[in-house]
Amino acid sequence: MAFDQLLSTDVILVFVAFGLGGILKGATGVGAPFLAVPIMAVLVDVRFAVAVFLVPNIVANAGQILRFRGSMPDRRFAFGFALAGTFGAGLGTFALAGLPSAVLTTTVALVVLAYVAFRLFNPTWSLGWETAQKAAAPLGAIGGVFQGAIGLSGPIAITFVNAVGLPRPQFIFTMSLYFFSMTLAQFPVQIGLGIMTWQRFGLGALSLVPLLLGMVLGEVIGRRVSKTVFDRIIITVLTLLALRLLVQNFG
Questions:
Q1: What is the 3 state secondary structure string of the chain?
Q2: What residue spans define the domains of the chain?
Q3: For each of the chain's 251 residues, which pLDDT tens digit applies?
Q4: CA pair distance 106, 169, nearest whole angstrom
Q5: pTM above 0.85, yes or no
């Protein structure tokens, strides 16, 4: 889709997607792609969604790394997890370039539905610290592959780190470092494969405005709405988006 065509038809909805993703990230510290990527996949396609989200992902997570830098957990765990994700994201970007759009869109929908099902049926799943240290690298790499290929590593990475039971500041630092590190691999590979264009870069930069405004609003909402209610709203929205993607492909 040409940039001027996108600008005239869907750019407002793209900004809404980033605003909603920002609200989720501001309220919980993570998860902006959960809403923004499926919405943009419905509007345009997965390659567009992953590329446009890259610049906002860099800025938002860099800001949270700086804000929570005093809350780093075990250094080996945090950086090992992030480096594995960086390697996986580089590999996953080649899948983003090579796979048909229908395959990528269906994968987004199935990953989101799998995450929703896991959250519903395993709400209290937890991991011991020794097990978490051993699993950090392989799960970080697998999440990175999904991040590079479809822009959604959260169903694996966030579920894993959440099960470790880190306090909220340590959780946010670990996930922000993970997401930020993966962009270091995604950006040059996307440029080399022609996925990242100047138009997508520019739209991503403009999308920082609704994303950051959404994060501010999300912090306010996060202090006033119970986590249980907020989770139920997000799960409902994600389910509807995933079903919409499947209907778009097979309906």
A1: CCHHHHHHHCHHHHHHHHHHHHHHHHHHCCCHHHHHHHHHHHHCCHHHHHHHCHHHHHHHHHHHHHHCHHHCCCHHHHHHHHHHHHHHHHHHHHHHHHCCHHHHHHHHHHHHHHHHHHHHHCCCCCCCHHHHHHHHHHHHHHHHHHHHHHCCCHHHHHHHHHHHCCCHHHHHHHHHHHHHHHHHHHHHHHHHHCCCCHHHHHHHHHCHHHHHHHHHHHHHHHHHCCHHHHHHHHHHHHHHHHHHHHHHHHC
A2: 3-250
A3: 444 445 555 677 788 888 888 888 787 766 677 777 878 877 778 888 889 989 988 988 898 899 888 888 888 999 999 999 999 999 999 999 888 878 887 887 888 888 888 878 877 777 888 888 999 999 999 989 988 988 888 778 877 887 888 887 888 899 889 999 999 889 999 999 999 999 899 989 999 999 889 988 988 887 787 767 766 776 777 787 778 778 877 76
A4: 34
A5: no
